[in-house]
Amino acid sequence: MSTLALKNSNSAPGAAEWLRGLLTRIQSYRVYRRTLHELSALSDRDLADLGLRRSILKRVAYQAAYEAN
Fold first, then answer.
1. Which of 38, 60, 61, 69 has the fewest Cβ atoms within 10 angstroms?
2. Boundaries of each YjiS-like domain copy (predicted)?
3. 16-54: per-residue pLDDT in tens?
4. Is residue 32 part of a domain?
5. Structure pTM?
């Protein structure tokens, strides 16, 4: 079994930060897709009960995934 040894220790923090950012973006995208899928599955009547229209579902899903803190 081989192992990878980094000789330049300065590159490791940058790589770790890049990977962390990538994973965060992937998780946010998954939240967006799941939210959009769940909202799209609702009937027009259910959406109306929530105060939503189909034309704004993408925006609502985007806000849930990327603007929630």
1. 69
2. 22-55
3. 999 999 999 999 999 999 999 999 999 999 999 999 999
4. yes
5. 0.75
